[in-house]
Design goal:
- By secondary structure, the chain is of the alpha+beta class.
- Helix content is 35%, strand content 17%.
- It has 2 domains: 4-205 and 304-346, no CATH class; 212-296, no CATH class.
- It has 13 helices and 13 strands.
- A hairpin with a 5-residue loop joins strand 3 and strand 4 (118-120).
């Protein structure tokens, strides 16, 4: 008899070592003195099929266990934990981003994507460790979605943010010491309302209205202040202004430019507009008549590797393919990938990854890849 938790753990270790399907658990079977008894391939397949029949309960149980383990690990880390010394000025950052994964067969839930591909459109949340930790961060949640899922589906963003807050273990309302960063796809009203109710800091993109160029023209020069580089020096050809209440087209026609804050940030929500010179791509649509082109300021720069780099690493750890047929089964695979990324996210980013040597005759075997016969020593 094999414990189901031990089988899932073996699969996570296998994926962390470079496994790409369930049968790659054989990488551990030959090291019984290290990994203990490892289930056979039929047993592993039967377990995944059984768990897929109760995928909601399985996800809840695994996520509860991950939260407990994460809190224990952070407690042992002490001053090196991501939550050590967090405040409104230095918050714990959660990055939310989506990616496309193409599949080459008609799997359940796979659908055409907006980039003319075919596959899945998972949404992922990451806990940023920052550059001082020397690590890429932890994968908090992987939400599997069909390939035709919308980029700005508010219900999906609300759900993944709720799960990410639970994984962080800082309570339902962690306050301003918790920062959620989302791109323009997450700048929906429902998502912003959730973040406001949870009383967390957030940085989200938003869609510019058609009359943005008119708003730029009405902002007084006194409202613009210089943009500073990381060394504290003003950036040449760039300035920034904050607006509390941008004027609409009807108010612009009456000469009302809205409310602008030249230096101090407003007490409520605000939109920051940054002007930058000599950028032809931005001048195509928004051109200031008497000065440089204007464009919206995005979220604050990431304190660690970019979310895209984390997604690339996750795809190197099993997220680049979904080896199972059913949608619920591939949700179990996403749990395995999230577990596999846990130890990898804690390792220093500068440490080179190590992949197991493929078995002779396997599809990834470089010896068998070219199809030429070779002689091998016994």
């Amino acid at each position: 008899m094999h414990d189901p938790g031990k089988i899932i753990l073996d699969l996570a270790v296998c994926v962390a070592l470079g496994g790409r399907c369930l049968s790659d658990v054989a990488l551990l079977r030959c090291q019984g003195e290290v990994f203990g008894p490892v289930a056979s391939d039929p047993t592993v397949c039967r377990l995944v099929g059984t768990l897929a029949g109760h995928v909601e309960a399985v996800e809840a149980a695994v996520n509860r266990a991950r939260t407990v383990v994460r809190q224990r690990a952070w407690a042992l880390a002490g001053a090196d934990a991501p939550t050590a010394g967090i405040s409104a000025a230095h918050p714990l950052v959660i990055d939310v981003d989506a990616t496309l994964v193409n599949v080459h067969s008609d799997k359940e839930g796979a659908a055409p994507t907006f980039k003319k591909g075919f596959g899945y459109h998972p949404l992922i949340a990451w806990i940023d460790h920052g550059t001082g930790q020397g690590a890429a961060g932890e994968c908090a949640v992987i939400m599997l979605r069909p390939g035709n899922a919308g980029s700005n589906t508010a219900a999906d963003h609300v759900e993944i943010i709720r799960r990410a807050l639970d994984q962080a273990g800082l309570g339902p309302r962690p306050g301003r010491r918790f920062l959620v960063r989302i791109d323009g796809a997450g700048g929906t009203k429902e998502t912003i309302e959730l973040l406001t109710r949870r009383r967390v800091s957030y940085s989200a993109g938003f869609t510019l209205p058609d009359h943005t160029a008119q708003i730029y023209d009405t902002i007084p020069e006194a409202a613009w202040t210089p943009v500073y580089n990381t060394d504290g020096e003003p950036r040449q050809g760039a300035d920034v202004a904050e607006t509390r209440r941008p004027a609409g087209p009807d108010r612009l026609a009456q000469g009302d430019a809205g409310d602008h804050a030249p230096r101090a940030a407003p007490s409520g929500r605000s939109a920051a507009l940054r002007g930058r010179g000599r950028l032809p791509a931005h001048r195509l649509r928004h051109q200031h008549k008497s000065g440089p082109a204007r464009r919206p300021r995005g979220p604050p720069p990431a304190t660690g590797p970019l979310p895209g780099d984390r997604i690339r690493c996750a795809k190197d750890t099993g997220l680049d393919r979904f080896p199972l047929q059913g949608f619920a089964q591939n949700r179990i695979w996403c749990l395995i990938v999230a577990l596999a990324r846990r130890p990898a996210g804690l390792l220093p980013a500068a440490r080179p990854g190590r992949r197991p040597r493929p078995r002779l005759g396997a599809p990834d075997d470089p010896v068998a890849a070219d199809g030429h016969p070779r002689r091998h020593r016994p």
